[in-house]
Amino acid sequence: MNFADFYRQSIDDRQTFWANEAKLIDWHQPFSQVLDYSRPPFARWFVGGQTNLCHNAVDRWVASQGEQPALISVSTETNREKVYSFKELQSEVMRTAAVMQSLGVGKGDRVLIYMPMIAEATFAMLACARIGAIHSVVFGGFASNSLATRIDDAKPKLIVSADAGMRAGKSIPYKPLLDEAINLATHKPDHVLLVNRGLVAMSLKAGRDVDYAALRERHMDARVPVTWLESNDTSYILYTSGTTGKPKGVQRDVGGYAVALASSMKHIFCGNAGETYFSTSDIGWVVGHSYIVYGPLIAGMATVMYEGLPIRPDAGIWWSIVEKYKVTRMFSAPTAVRVLKKQPPEFMKKHDLSSLKALYLAGEPLDETTSSWIAGELGVPVIDNYWQTETGWPILSVAKGIEDMPTRLGSPGVPMVGYDVKVVNETSGALCGPGEKGVVMIKGPLPPGCMQTVYGDDERFVKTYWSRVNGEQVYSTFDWGIRDADGYYFILGRTDDVINVAGHRLGTREIEESISSHPNVSEVAVVGVEDNLKGQVAVAFAILKNAEPAATTEGRLALEGDIMAVVDRQLGAVGRPSRVYFVTLLPKTRSGKLLRRSIQAICEGRDPGDLTTIEDPASLQQIKDALSF
Ligand code: AMP
């Protein structure tokens, strides 16, 4: 089929198009209306339909391929490897669901999942989906303050965690961070369910903390039926960074998400039941939700869950997994590929990669060198795809399942079905012509699977993302972009203060707030600076209350280390700036707004731009001087 026609129908006749796509999943009760957009920008998909994500991901496949692999859990940190068939996965999920029910969790209750990449994390997510509890997975790399803000926002009845994660052979205790987070938070969960991996000792708080293995033992034969949910019930909340220090809870539905994932698995990822999918992301990010846990399983594929680094024990580890489990579709991020590119190439050559059909890369801009290199090494198409936590599945890509469209270096591709993408001039609001830079926007309604709202804050959802452009209600992606004459888009970075470090999205404001809590910091600016390996790194410029400790090089380094340790403790190492420089003045406008973009430009050796509103031009010289230290 011709993709252009397929796409056109998805925009011009949404009702027919999505009614067809909805056939890709099981419905317990059919929907009465495909789309209710009577209260824009809130879109309600498949109104009245009843379904369940866990049913579609697990139960649905038990009858036809119950003995086939569903979850392949590989850890090169603990050297454990276990394959769960669909039947075994179903049993484990029912055990976890029974454990959760025994702790009082039911439909609509929130469950916060703070876990490493172990099979139990997937059981917990699917168990929530099964009983209609709303999960909120928090990335294991986040520390106590990040966790505490999410606990206070989601108000979970239950937190599921583990004794520790592991990275490069070193255990990272989770329990002390979690205890500190619960202390910091105003909301207290009723229970904390802990998987004891035997990595570090942990103390359990009587009455609150419970041991997963002990409870699981009591529910070995549990048969927990699926709770059928209305399509617009909430399946999960996933927090993401924005321009304020307070992360936004991206809230997702059930039916729309299931259909969007099934549709994208078919048309974009071309995954077939019985094959194996390997996404190298983490369950703490949206890719982990959509394309480690739900997407592949909904398509009847086995999914690989990998705990470890891409280069440990050696740079062949991912390729040995591809060979062993005959992975057909692989998903990763450009940073990971750049890491591999620095390793000797023979590791890839050692493995039989003939099962692999395509590599999908997302999360950050894919540069042409990285893309061409990996395509050459693997000999398969490399498919860039652009999306966000908010959308849950690709906005731009190429849908090879519909038409073998060519990819274009440097471009993630064309709009995927249901996304009515526009490039809009930032100041005039006019539509940009081919080759003209503007803000990438999507005309409402957003397609199925995208965020329903900001959890608990409809107003924030509307105010943050939506505006009227030429009389139309449009959603802003907060990305700059260009559309070429053939309809291919190019993404040119964020329009806001969000930065992207190794494919991880971070808010500069969150990092600034953390650094400001250091007793000797009076003011700070954090910007994202281009980096060859990670895409961007965070760099901080701080004004000290007492500059004396930074008078010597030694003192400066010690203070820098101190500040980094504060960020590590509060946000986690992912938020740690690569450098902290000390200044006495920061570039600001006369109304006191930080000129982050000018600071960033200086750090990247570019022109600082329009400075007519700057309060004190000497501040720019200070940034330059600080960098030369
Ligand atoms: P996240 O919500 O963490 O997935 O981050 C979303 C942001 O990452 C987007 O708004 C973009 O700025 C960036 N991004 C994601 N995928 C791509 C891509 N393929 N090319 C360029 N930027 C991307």
Automatic annotation (TrEMBL):
InterPro entries: ACAS_N, AMP-bd_C, AMP-bd_C_sf, AMP-binding_CS, AMP-dep_synth/lig_dom, ANL_N_sf, Propion_PrpE. PROSITE patterns: AMP_BINDING (PS00455). Residues 510-593 form the AMP-binding enzyme C-terminal domain. One of its GO terms (molecular function) is propionate-CoA ligase activity. Residues 4-57 form the Acetyl-coenzyme A synthetase N-terminal domain. Keywords: ATP-binding, Ligase, Nucleotide-binding. One of its GO terms (biological process) is propionate catabolic process, 2-methylcitrate cycle. Residues 59-445 form the AMP-dependent synthetase/ligase domain. Belongs to the ATP-dependent AMP-binding enzyme family. This is Propionate--CoA ligase.
